[in-house]
Amino acid sequence: MQRRNFLIGVSSTAVAGSALLGTGAFSRVESQRNVAIQVATDDEAYLGMGVIDDSLNSTNFAELDENGHLAIDIGDFGAGGDYDYETGVGVNSDSFTYFDDLFRLCNNGKADATISYELPDPDTAGHPSLDGSWEAPDPDYDEQVVTFYFQREDGTRVFVDEGEEIPLELGECENIGLRTVTKGIDATEGSPLLDGTVVITADSPDAGEVTTTNPE
Amino acid sequence: MQRRNFLVGLGSASVGGSALLGSGAFSRVESQRSVSVSVAEDHEAYLGLGKCPTPNGSYAWPDDDGHLEVLMSPDNPTRTENDGDTPLGAGINSNSTSRFDRVFQICNNGKDTVCVHIEDDIAWPTVPETEETDVGERRVEFYLEANDDISLIGEENSIPISVGQCVCVGVKTRSYGLQNDDELLEALDNEIRIIADVDGDCIPPSGCADLSVEYESTNYDEEDDIFRRASTEFRITNTNGVPTSYDLAVANEPGDWRAGLSIDEDTSQTRVADASVPTAALVFWSCDNGAPAGSQTWGEYKEANGFADLEDWYEQTGTTQFAPSGSPQDVDDTLLVVEAADIPNGEPDEEIDAGDFPDMSAGAEAEGWITTQKFNA
Fold first, then answer.
1. Chain A to chain B Cβ contacts (< 8 Å)
2. Residue at which a domain ends, from B163, B197, B231
3. ipTM for the complex shown
């Protein structure tokens, strides 16, 4: 198949004192333009999501799968590995468990952004002990059973509830941790606390706003 | 497969006093004169293509030949020009929907208003049925400015660009089921065709009104020291900057149908319906392009709620079981519709003694009914 598009026009050169007034007149233009939109691995994408190499929590429990998607598997990290001790197979019941520096989020886009996350449907992706919400089943606790957090420089953990937005400046990265709260979860069920897809949303409204400076 | 683009301009050729006015598109150039053929770079061509003056303009670049390219890939110069030492990522995320408002702009540097669209293609990739999200939606959508509801793909979505005007185009991507290195428009050889046509037929993408309707208060008429309920005030609110005409349907006691009402942009107004015990209310308005996010057409509403037509809606939602005499059997399925979500249960007092007015009985007021006099007080 071969397609060609021709546009012929008249430039604005003055000839014999009279301008060629037809400058720019055209009746139809068809322009073909390249649009290359490529999928990147999560660590290299505009919303960068990757493993933190110098964090054992991250290298043990987070990985880029064969399709380049960041995945978190807090299960038997020893499965298939070479460990000289009995590795754990999950978080403790009736406990608060913290995984600092589990994965890294980076803003590789074009402007400051806010980040939020959405947990899947607790009825289909959650532990059977849950009752239609991600809140810990034990009535004495109102924490989400799975919560992401980041840490301030002094190590303070700042918990981010589902739907809450946190800022992530352009070019910056934030190490994200995960806390599980298994209060009221029946560990004998043998079911995962969460097995499903978490949606992470980066919103960067300034990227599409007209500025006075030319983009690079 | 080979595709080429030629843009031919006649430079300072020795043409006499007669201007070459009749320029136009054609498929073959054969020139007997000695001419210097100059090819304009995109940004100064008659159909000007360039970066938008936004941060997202970084995703668009002129190639070595001056042709604009959209580069959401490792090849984007913003990423490579500093030896990769820039924050810009190598591409879009997998399993994601991404929106890039205002990436490149199309400018009309010609002499007439043109209709511009991006040519649709039967091979345009969509999200396959094996995915869970956005099945059947385009892998890549091109939309107007920051309005991802207003597609620019297909001749039916042509927009006018007047002389000297530029519009920015946004890019929305859906990468469900794709993986590293996949290219979303590979099936199109990573090419789109932008078409500008002077003879095209297109209307401005003005967007549409965004209406809501709510119960406001109940009107009473006084007769021998007794106030009797007579009609209902509804508040209609338009939160978009586009005026519109609309129709108001109210079910019950008796049902009411008011057609051809109008409302200005970004304002609200009250309308009186004869129904004094309303059980449901709908507002209909038309929208040619740019429906507000989350809006629903009458056709969708009927299907979602099990109504056959407007008459059926009156009969099912009202208790008097028939439609008002002036209402049509049905209205156009493409109209947008919104229902009043806040109509109280029960009914407002049928009569109120003059001594109590404008108070209703405590029970009715607890449900949310209120007299207009009290509401306005």
1. 311
2. B197
3. 0.74
